[in-house]
Amino acid sequence: MIQFLLNQTLRTEHALDPNLTVLEYLRSQCAKPGTKEGCASGDCGACTVVVGELGQDENGRDRIRYRSLNSCLTFVASLHGKQLISVEDLKHQGKLHSVQQAMVECHGSQCGFCTPGFVMSLFALQKNSDAPDLHKAQEALAGNLCRCTGYRPILAAAEQACCQRGGDQFDARESETIARLKAIAPQEIAELNSGDKRCMVPLTIADLADLYSSHPEARLLAGGTDLALEVTQFHRALPVMIYVGNVSEMKRIERFDDRLEIGAATPLTDCYDALNEHYPDFGELLHRFASLQIRNQGTLGGNIGNASPIGDSPPLLIALGAQIVLRQGNQTRTLALEDYFIDYRITARQESEFIEKIIVPLPQANTRFRAYKVSKRLDDDISAVCAAFNLRIENGIVTDARVAFGGMAAIPKRAKACETALLGNAWNQASVDRAVAALAEDFTPLSDFRASKEYRLLSAQNLLRKYFIELQTPHIETRVTAYV
Ligand SMILES: Cc1cc2nc3c(=O)[nH]c(=O)nc-3n(C[C@H](O)[C@H](O)[C@H](O)COP(=O)(O)OP(=O)(O)OC[C@H]3O[C@@H](n4cnc5c(N)ncnc54)[C@H](O)[C@@H]3O)c2cc1C
Ligand code: FES
Ligand code: FES
Question: With CB atoms 3.0 to 4.6 Å apart as the test, which of 69, 263, 335, 384 could cross-link to 250 if both were Cys?
Answer without folding.
Answer: 263
